[in-house]
Write a structure and sequence with these properties.
29% helix, 22 strands, 459 residues, alpha/beta, Metallo-beta-lactamase, Chain A, Rossmann fold, 7-stranded mixed β-sheet, 13 helices, binds zinc ion, 2 domains, globular
Length: 459
């Protein structure tokens, strides 16, 4: 009998990894890192409950680290199969995994230098060489094309919205003359999102594994452009600079697009937008290279992508970044990281926060203990690079850019599914997962389950 084991994202949001097994085949769907609390992060170091060398393939849904971050370690531990993903994910995975390796090498180096680790020496979960080895196994599969991942296990990608390259995976398992179809939602995006396409509705299936990040929430209707216009006009009237901490892949490109929209729609006169992050510059190039993967046409004047418009300045070097210290408003600086937990945004914050004419614009979720959260909570003095920085700048919060469907949108995504045997809710905290499970069983009459970590079910 085929089985499905939940090896991550069970009653929590991170660490997505599911194992589909038959008598002869083993295929993983996603292999993501655990993030957040220490107890979860320690799981990244545990030896897997399966022999990595016996897994024939990993089918990735998208490039976020909580879906791909355990791949380099599995390769180190003996995985030799194929890592499947969509074409944009192949390109984005390289920059995300290399950045993650770099950050982990830096962390390990810091712990060793300060003697802060009980492991001697502290090691990164994976390094740049591990990433290079892993990337050699990657193979791109376009949306809609069916492939055999292992004998008796086939899969096909479907649009998931959420992020460039993000997909749901429709997996068909054939064993003993019986066919079983399992649909893995991946991360489901919002309808009418900025840049990302609408998710394709879930197809009929025997089993569905559905994310539930916002399984107990409704996002509400807010116009992102109206909010953005307001905050820009206030800031520019003061002669200030708008500072935008943004995740380098996805959010940075959405912001460039939104700034362009305000000008194109005639709501504002053109103003310079500085993208200051080598990683965001790389990601922007990949966004421009996949013109058909967005829900809008990104063609700008003269056939160039509008992500490379006349008023958009891309900065890679440290010298270029430092020059921005002298920049006067009206202007925008987009830099990472998105939660102000590191990166060039810290330098810009140190320079801009002490001046009342500027604005720092938060554009996404800010985890507890991050500088982004402290600013949102109204802290008036913050620590940056070992110095106290007074916060006189305006702190604003742009709502409505979430990459995840809310509960109603997840119900809409499931609308065409008629007679599944069971729906599994994963990739959500317990409250969210159970809330969505009871809504699905209540409104649709489907059998639902919120699996526990490492739980195995027969299919
Ligand atoms: Zn994601």
């Amino acid at each position: 009998m085929a089985t499905l084991t939940f090896l991550g994202a069970a009653r929590t949001v991170t660490g997505s990894q599911y194992l589909v097994e038959t008598g002869s085949s083993k295929v993983l769907i996603d292999s993501g890192m655990f993030q957040g609390e220490k107890a979860l992060r320690l799981r990244n170091w545990e030896d897997p409950h399966f022999a990595p060398g016996q897994v024939q393939a990993i089918v990735l849904t998208h490039t976020h680290l909580d879906h791909i971050g355990r791949v380099p370690r599995l390769v180190k531990l003996g995985f030799k199969g194929v890592v499947y993903c969509t074409p944009p994910t192949l390109e984005l995975a390289e920059i995300l995994l290399k950045d993650a390796a770099h950050l982990q090498e830096e962390d390990a180096e810091y712990l060793n230098r300060k003697g802060l680790s009980k492991h001697k020496p502290a090691l990164p979960l994976f390094d740049n060489a591990d990433v290079d080895a892993a990337l050699k196994l990657f193979q791109a599969v376009p949306l809609g094309e069916e492939r055999e991942a292992a004998p008796g296990i086939r899969f096909r990608y479907r649009e998931a919205g959420h992020l460039l390259g993000a997909a749901s995976a429709e997996v068909t398992v054939a064993e003993g003359g019986k066919q079983t179809r399992i649909v893995f939602s991946g991360d489901v995006g919002r309808y009418a999102a900025v840049l990302a396409k609408d998710p394709a509705p879930a197809p009929e299936a025997d089993y569905l594994v559905v994310e539930s990040t916002y399984g107990n929430r409704a996002h509400g209707q807010v116009s992102v452009l109206d909010q953005l216009e307001g905050v820009l006009k206030r800031t520019f009237a003061r002669g200030g600079v708008l500072l935008v901490p943004a995740f380098a892949v996805g959010r940075a490109q959405q912001m460039i697009y939104l700034f362009d929209q305000l000008v194109t729609e005639g709501r504002m006169r053109a103003f310079p937008v500085h993208l200051d992050s080598p990683m965001a510059v790389d990601a922007t190039r990949i966004y421009a290279r996949h013109p058909d993967a967005h829900n809008v046409n990104l063609d700008g004047i003269g056939g160039r992508s509008l992500l490379y418009g006349k008023w958009i300045f891309h900065h890679r070097t440290r010298e270029e970044s430092m020059k921005l210290n002298e920049l006067k408003g009206p202007a925008v600086i987009i830099s990472s990281s998105g939660m102000l937990s590191g990166g060039r945004i810290l330098h810009h914050s140190r320079v801009r926060l002490p001046h009342a004419e500027n604005t720092l614009l938060i554009t996404g979720y800010q985890a507890a203990t991050t500088l982004g959260r402290a600013l949102l909570d109204g802290r008036r003095i913050v620590r940056i690079h070992k110095g106290d920085v007074p916060v006189l700048a305006e702190i604003a919060n742009l709502k409505g850019l979430s990459g995840h469907a809310d509960a109603g949108e997840l119900m809409r995504w499931l609308a065409e599914v008629k007679t599944p045997k069971e729906v599994f809710l994963t990739h959500g905290e317990e409250d969210a997962a159970f809330a969505l499970a009871s809504r699905i069983s209540g409104q649709r009459g489907f059998r639902t389950r919120v699996p526990k970590m490492d739980e195995r079910v027969g299919l």
